[in-house]
From TrEMBL, chain A:
Listed SUPFAM superfamilies: MetI-like (SSF161098)
Gene Ontology CC terms: plasma membrane
Domain of life: Bacteria
Gene3D superfamilies in the cross-refs: MetI-like
The protein's name: Peptide/nickel transport system permease protein
A biological process from GO: transmembrane transport
Main subcellular localisation: membrane
Pfam families reported for this sequence: BPD_transp_1
Family to which the UniProt record says this protein belongs: Belongs to the binding-protein-dependent transport system permease family.
PANTHER family registered for this protein in UniProt: D,D-DIPEPTIDE TRANSPORT SYSTEM PERMEASE PROTEIN DDPC-RELATED, OLIGOPEPTIDE TRANSPORT SYSTEM PERMEASE PROTEIN APPC
Membrane topology of the entry: Multi-pass membrane protein
UniProtKB/TrEMBL annotation, chain B:
Organism for this UniProt entry: Allonocardiopsis opalescens
Entry's Gene Ontology BP terms: peptide transport; transmembrane transport
Protein name: Peptide/nickel transport system ATP-binding protein
ABC transporter domain ranges (all copies): 11-246
GO molecular function: ATP binding; ATP hydrolysis activity
From TrEMBL, chain C:
Lineage of producing organism: Bacteria, Bacillati, Actinomycetota, Actinomycetes, Streptosporangiales
Intracellular or extracellular location(s): Cell membrane
Main location: membrane
GO biological process: peptide transport
Key word Iron-sulfur present: no
Protein name, entry field: Peptide/nickel transport system ATP-binding protein
UniProtKB/TrEMBL annotation, chain D:
The keyword Membrane is annotated on this UniProt entry: yes
GO cellular component term of the entry, any: plasma membrane
Family: Belongs to the binding-protein-dependent transport system permease family.
Membrane topology recorded in Swiss-Prot or TrEMBL: Multi-pass membrane protein
Domain annotation ABC transmembrane type-1: ranges: 94-302
Transmembrane regions: 12-29, 98-121, 133-159, 179-198, 238-262, 282-305
Database matches in InterPro entries: BPD_transp_1_N (IPR045621), MetI-like (IPR000515), MetI-like_sf (IPR035906)
Protein name: Peptide/nickel transport system permease protein
A Pfam family that the UniProt record links to this protein: BPD_transp_1
Compartments it resides in: Cell membrane
Major site of localization recorded for this protein: membrane
Keywords: Cell membrane, Membrane, Transmembrane, Transmembrane helix, Transport
Amino acid sequence: MLRRTETRRDALVPAACVAVLALVAIGAVLAQLLPQLDPLRADFQAPLRPPGPEHWFGTDATGRDVFARTLAGGASSIVVAAMTVAVGLVVGGGLGVLAGFARGWVDALIGTLLDVVLALPGLITVMVVVTMVGPGRLTIGALIGLIMVPAFARIARSATLTVRGQEFVQAARIMGAPPLRIIGSEVVRCVLPAVAAYSFTAVTVAIVAEGSLSFLGFGLAPPTASWGGLIAEGRTHIATAPWICLAPAAVLCATVLAVNVLGERWGRSRP
Amino acid sequence: MTRPRGAELVVDRLQVRYRVPGGWIEAVRGVSFTVPAGRTVGLVGESGSGKSSLAKAVTGLVAPSGGSVAFAGGPVRHRPGPGGIQMVFQDPVASLHPHRTLVDLVAEPLRWAGVARARRRERAAAALADVGLDPAVYGGRRRHQISGGQAQRVAIARAALAEPELIIADEPVAGLDVSVQAGVVNLLHRAVADRGASLLFISHDLGVVSALCDEVVVLYLGRVCERGPTESVLAAPRHPYTRALLDAVPEVGRVPPPSRLPAAEPPSPLHPPPGCAFHPRCPDAVAACRTAVPAPRELGGAVVSCHAAAPQTPSTEPVTSPPPDRSPP
Amino acid sequence: MSAPLLELDGLSLRFDGPAGSLHVLESVSLAVAEGESVGLVGESGSGKSVLARAVLGVHPGPAAPSLTGRILLEGRDVTDGSSRRRAVSMVFQDPSASLNPVVRIGRQVLEAVPPAERGSRARQRAAATELLRAVGLPDPGRRLRSYPAELSGGQRQRVGIAAALAAQPRLLLADEPTTALDVTVQQRVLDLIGELRRERGMALLLITHDLGLLAGRTDRIAVMYAGRVVEDGPTERVLAEPRHPYTRALLAVTPRLSPRRRPPLPQIPGGLPDLREPRTGCPFAPRCERALPECATRPPLLRAGAGHTVSCWAAEGVPV
Amino acid sequence: MRTLLTRAVRALAVIALLGMLTMALPLLLTGDPAVAVLGVEATPEQLAAFTAALNLDASPPERFAHWLGGAVRGDLGTSLVTGAPVTAEIGERLPVTLELLLCGQLLALAITVPVAMRSAWRPGGVVDRISTVLAYLLLSTPAFVLGLALILVLAVGLAVLPATGWAAPDDPVEHLRHLVLPVLTMGLTEAAVLVRVLRADLIATLRTPYILAARSRGLSPWRLLWTRALRPSSFSTVTLVGLGLGLAFGGSVLVETIFAVPGMGRLAASAIEARDFPVIEAVVLLSGVTVVLVGTLVDLVYGVIDPRARHAAAH
């Protein structure tokens, strides 16, 4: 009995998480396509409307639909998160594999460079650079990715070191397997899953960091919708119209939660 | 200097050291011995003796910090195809790729030698059957679906299929139950004996070594204490450490003689004692042992590194040629 | 005759997990008398370590096994997990893993003494020093402040023995106490355990995979295979005249120092039965060269001599 | 000894590289930084004065050397906005941030240790499941959302605490009242991470043979956890707490913004908005140096936690 309910819950939770992420993604696409969901269309006749059949999540101070703006904010989060993971995987993963295989002074040099990045106050550094080079989803995503490079590199390096030391890799060397083929196939087999597991964490960090930047006013420029920006705008009306704040906040938290849970399952499913 | 002949392995004054937090470990401190073509040599040592570092240096997995290893007259190379060196590891499961099937694992050396897929699978299946694993049952399994003893059989089948001139086995039975050990030892013996290849068998277990090896090399803290034909070393050990080791080996039904060793603990390889490394534990130590490293001497057919070991009737006993010059049977 | 110190009466033990059950022990009966020394021999999967843990009353991991049968200590039924402190303690297999790396040795050896009975700091120091002296650790007073990493493997196992002695147990369990040690150290540690046992009048259950360790060290040997005791008798008799085919085979494959034993060496074909299924007949039958049709059913317990029993269809003896 | 020396050399190299990187920040501005900051209407004299004040003509290494020279004498330059010495600005803000961070980390630890212990003792038990769900919810709630939620409940709803603002310690009661919400936000966010980490490490430790041995010797669960299992399980937790404290100089921009706390984070944010380079450079560099120093300190703490690590400091 107990076991059956356990297994059902085990399957249900990831399914729910995938559903949440799918809805956010579909919503983000629809917000770009459907004119009804234009996040900028303001209905000046209906400011600060509470949630109802016409405006599911209510309207903000200028009468813009909070639901449409929340969906559009999802698009920003997706683009930023994708960019973060891309930069982290390529730069961090590459440096980590290089450090793990070369060892010696290359490892020490890469380690020192990564320590420099690690010593930077992350959010403040991104804020400084954004004010100077201008905001943009890809810029912000790349910057967050760079800040996360040391974490990716550390994981890739230790996975590489593990691969190197494994006896079946040594056995392959003795059997005369071409070294580059061993490295190639083993990196794909061992290092990639380890780094991919960390990508879930990177996605949540990217979404939260982008939200934080927009919340602080250093993120995406105002017309572009962002969950953090929506929450910051709603803050002034928190006592009278809490939905402006709460709707995007709830969607943000649900998305991060879904990614966290999926990441944990992914990590647990691997030995 | 010995001139290498055939597929002879010549280890000459080999040194291996490792960087560890707090200094260097001199794991191997000038070890010389020879594995003549077609012979089986046992390398015996306890923890800290440097036997595993030696195995890695001989197979070229670590670079020696001094001395040399020569195989068939040249440096050790990792090249596919017959006639090379193969290795059997202590942890048989870890030495098999986790995702490949047993047939593909055994076929691995042929793959790097460029043998066509169908042909190498066919030969691998035959090799599996040869080590007692029905290819129809086990061929499609992976390493986590077999026992440790079976994994070691797979590893031996794989090494044998590469048709090496020398197999190096690093503690191949240490993790196995005694009821399984004998089978693995028999397979290893067959893998080399059938084709006249040689075997370097590394173990802490004198019992297994004595049954398998023509010659034995006893290591202590990175140096050779004694080496010679197994019969001679077992019957008349000259080095006090070899004697202590033989006394301590558990034998069924034998009430062990009281240990002759002083109570001193084995020293750490990080700080080996000066002179003869064994002197703090040696019941026969003399003053010279504390300062001077004993040079290898030939004593009654064996080569012994000990200040205190006396030649037993050296004039009458016929001096056989030293192990490196022994011809294969 | 008084009741034995430890008595296992038809003990069966099963681990239940999400992937099914493991039938580790199947109706094991074994007794250890006051002051007696018993060797428990078996290969991996025989259940010998699990048996020791069941006697000790602790199991690693969160899942507790389900037990049937009885464990009697000093005549007291402790199967339900009631306290064994003061009656049993254990010397563990790997001294490097079974000593806490961050706790000083002086504190660890006194772990088994309840805080209420420890007394002043000076008394604790004296007690710990005395224990370390008893196990032959050089310079025991200074060693109190050492960490395990500062000792050699043999010294660590001496500390492990000292920690087991602190409770002044009447039964000492030693689970492969020298498997992790070098042979030249192994002998000293086993000798130490033997001396302490005689001095303190403790009983000893020495668990090992190596039949070669037991001569001169134990009064009796019990041989386990796949969760059952297949043979139990006086040490010399079991080693010289083994009655169970498994004991015989084990003796034949145990390595000996003999250059005349050239390969092929004798071996036992086949492997351990699947522990996920309860064994109906003799678990050794598939590997046994003397297997009979009856072996598919549970073999009888036969008396093969004074204090010598064997569980086999093919053996000679009087049913118990 | 050797490893200590290599560590020191590496730390100095990191600080030097960090310094040059920080000093290269103005180069990110397109065109002349002076024009970018002062605007096109600025007179050539103003531009020249600006360039000279920031030593912008020099290369980043030279600028860093110059900055370092000043720093040694206790001179971090002058704020472009207020005209006050940067040291004075920081001296005013730093205690606020430090208090916040210390209280936040302490609260996090006070929550983490007992919760992680209870969870790890019976993994999959009721306490573990509840704490896991709560930890995941908190982990998925960004600090700015959690802060707003706390304001909504405790300040707006129940009206027991001030929503925002700060009171000097001269008035202890008001000071504490203003401290509660920011510290709660920081502590809860941090605790969510720490609980997961410490719980996993504790579960691993509780499976080791030495814990089994201690259990067999009759140690009570309470003593087992506190005196035997906690220390060997605390490496990652110590690292994370150290990292959190190391970022003190950068302050917590988010929490300070939500609750309008005048700390380092607010100082940094307003300096960035105004492109007040001397302040930005000082904050980034001091933060970086603290992280490096705390990192080294954490390595030393490892040695205290685990005698085995005393000789093995390098990774």
